[in-house]
Amino acid sequence: MKTVSQISELRAQVKTWRQQGLTVAFVPTMGNLHAGHISLVAEAHKHADKIVASIFVNPMQFGVNEDIENYPRTMINDQQKLTAAGTDLLFTPSPDIIYPKGLAKQSFVEVPNISDGYCGESRPGHFRGVATIVCKLFNLVQPDVACFGLKDYQQVQVIQRMVVDLSMPITIMPVATIREESGLALSSRNGYLTAEEKAIAPALHQSLHWLGEQISAGYAQQDSIDFIGLAKQAAKTINDAGLHTDYLHVCHAQTLQPASEDDTQLVILAAAHCGKARLIDNLQVKLA
Ligand code: PAF
Fold first, then answer.
1. What's the average model confidence in pLDDT over 59-79?
2. Atom of ligand 1 nearest to the CA of 30
3. Rounded CA gap, 199 and 129, in Å?
4. Is 252 a residue of the active site?
5. Own/partner pairs for 209-213, CB < 8 Å, 24+ apart?
6. 35, 122, 187, 195 — which has fewest CB within 10 A?
7. Among candidates 285, 251, 262, 276, which has minimal Cα distance to 119?
8. Of 85, 121, 70, residue with least CA distance to 247
């Protein structure tokens, strides 16, 4: 695997592949890679001849109170993992290459509505930062396909909407969440959990499961489903386990609007604090 940090090197390599008629898949990351990221590379292999990954801890998507300085940086390990997974090219730009005029003067991409609630509400500006960096990286790499993990369900929807709204000729491949045996979704943020916190963290996933089952059972029995009441019960279970729920909502799987009786494609979105870590998870519920 070749690692480049300059835009000109990245463009030159992709241009060569294009001239050879090869297709390109892209896996953007912020590093500190785990099996979830590697599953994105595995998915990318199914869709293109060459795989480009990026590692860039994007300052634009971190809030003022979020500790970007201490975000784990593990470049050597990450390079080894990406090499083993068969990545062809790794792009590792520095912030001044991506944002040469600084963040205050940077143009940005905002994807309305879908960015507003849930993580968008708890982390103001977060999805503007995500959409802007992903748009920039798409312009630099110009992939045919890009892979994103479904653990960040709202992020996937924001990116899918951006690609449609801005007519980007890129197929977005959502990839299933990889979990520990306990059910805890893999995340770079799990590294912040103590052993005790790790023992209670699976309560998040378990409660989403419980809620999904209640919804499916209610639908099967043709009962009217109290999405809000059930979500409150699930949040209480999470809090009783020792986490602190930030939000937990049952939503339409594409619009992310609160679920209504007629919806059959649902997603439960949740975030909860566990010690220093803010964990997010989701569960898709297909009723028909
Ligand atoms: O999911 C992530 O790691 C980041 O939000 C992404 C998509 C790489 C943009 O910085």
1. 94
2. 3
3. 32
4. no
5. 209/183, 209/283, 210/234, 210/237, 211/248, 211/250, 211/268, 211/283, 212/268, 212/283, 212/285
6. 195
7. 251
8. 121
Q: What is the mean pLDDT of residues 85-100?
A: 98
- Which of 27, 55, 92, 155 has the most ligand 1 atoms within 8 A of CB, as the residue to mutate? 155
Report H helices in 20-112.
Answer: 35-45, 75-84, 95-98
d(CA 118, CA 266): 15
pLDDT bin (cut points 50, 70, 90) of residue 287 is very high
Question: Exposure of 94 by Cβ count < 10 A (0-12 exposed, 13-18 middle, 19+ buried)?
Answer: exposed
SS3 content of the chain, % helix, strand, coil (to 5): 45, 20, 35
Q: For residue 188, give the ligand 1 atom closest to its CA.
A: 3
pTM of this prediction?
0.97
For tokens 């090219």, the residue is 89
Residue closest to 140 by CA, chosen among 26, 16, 272, 276: 26
Q: How far is Cα 216 from Cα 213, in angstroms, rounded to an integer?
A: 5
Q: Tell me how far apart the terminal alpha carbons of the chain are, to the nearest angstrom.
A: 44
Statement: residue 65 has pLDDT above 90 = no
Q: How far apart are CA 179 and CA 149, in angstroms?
A: 12
CB 256 within 8 A of CB 117: yes
152 is in an annotated binding site: yes
Euclidean distance between CA atoms 268 and 265, whole angstroms: 10
Q: Does residue 152 line the site of ligand 1, with CB under 6 A?
A: yes
Element (DSSP H or E) covering residue 233: helix 227-240
Which domains are seen in the chain, by residue range? 2-175 (3.40.50.620), 188-286 (3.30.1300.10)
